[in-house]
DNA sequence: ATTACTATGTATAAACA
DNA sequence: TTGTTTATACATAGTAA
């Protein structure tokens, strides 16, 4: 999206990579905010730059998102493998 | 981006909201992937729809992202409040 | 490291299949 | 509802400051 079409591969030049990172990071954060508002969704976005710096956005709070994520993954586990909800002893004697 | 300009506020009509959610969710996931590749960044994106369904993307793994996030936040704490790295007892007698 | 410009590529709103 | 179409709005690559 710009003066020329680009191929999606790692940008070798570190200055260009940094500039692109800044621009696209702003863009994706904007998109994340819009999605949360327009669609009434809870959104959490974590980005570590190649230099290791953390950037984050959460429509609620990151703690809320991560906690909810953990609970949702547990539920997925239960759906995928219903027996796992039984305690170890219960399974032994099932 | 489309036939008409829109205001960023919750979409009342639930069918429209769902359609917009699908389209924009695809869009933001694509952006997240591109950012990770182009800029050599580690990216984690978690989205809960208004119906509570989880959608996720991580350039590495979500566990890696969340763990790294936790460590980065700890570091931020230490930078913001250097004394907190001292143990409680040490602080008492500082 | 940001910011500005702007031509061009992309995402998507609305409509409809 | 789930996918096309397409006109339009938006994001951004290249560049310079």
TrEMBL record, chains A, B:
<dbReference type="Pfam" id="PF00319">
    <property type="entry name" value="SRF-TF"/>
</dbReference>
<dbReference type="GO" id="GO:0045944">
    <property type="term" value="P:positive regulation of transcription by RNA polymerase II"/>
</dbReference>
<keyword id="KW-0539">Nucleus</keyword>
<dbReference type="GO" id="GO:0046983">
    <property type="term" value="F:protein dimerization activity"/>
</dbReference>
<keyword id="KW-0238">DNA-binding</keyword>
<feature type="domain" description="MADS-box">
    <location>
        <begin position="1"/>
        <end position="61"/>
    </location>
</feature>
<dbReference type="InterPro" id="IPR002100">
    <property type="entry name" value="TF_MADSbox"/>
</dbReference>
<keyword id="KW-0805">Transcription regulation</keyword>
<dbReference type="InterPro" id="IPR033896">
    <property type="entry name" value="MEF2-like_N"/>
</dbReference>
<dbReference type="GO" id="GO:0005634">
    <property type="term" value="C:nucleus"/>
</dbReference>
<dbReference type="InterPro" id="IPR050142">
    <property type="entry name" value="MADS-box/MEF2_TF"/>
</dbReference>
<protein>
    <recommendedName>
        <fullName>MADS-box domain-containing protein</fullName>
    </recommendedName>
</protein>
<keyword id="KW-0804">Transcription</keyword>
<dbReference type="GO" id="GO:0000977">
    <property type="term" value="F:RNA polymerase II transcription regulatory region sequence-specific DNA binding"/>
</dbReference>
<dbReference type="InterPro" id="IPR036879">
    <property type="entry name" value="TF_MADSbox_sf"/>
</dbReference>
């Amino acid at each position: 999206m710009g003066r020329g079409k680009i191929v999606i591969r790692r940008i070798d030049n570190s200055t260009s990579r940094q500039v692109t990172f800044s621009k696209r990071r702003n863009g994706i954060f904007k998109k994340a905010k819009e999605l949360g508002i327009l669609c009434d969704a809870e959104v959490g976005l974590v980005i570590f730059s190649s230099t290791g710096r953390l950037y984050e956005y959460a429509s609620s709070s990151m703690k809320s998102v991560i906690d909810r994520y953990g609970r949702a993954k547990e539920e997925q586990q239960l759906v995928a493998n219903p027996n796992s909800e039984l305690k170890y002893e219960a399974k032994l004697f099932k």
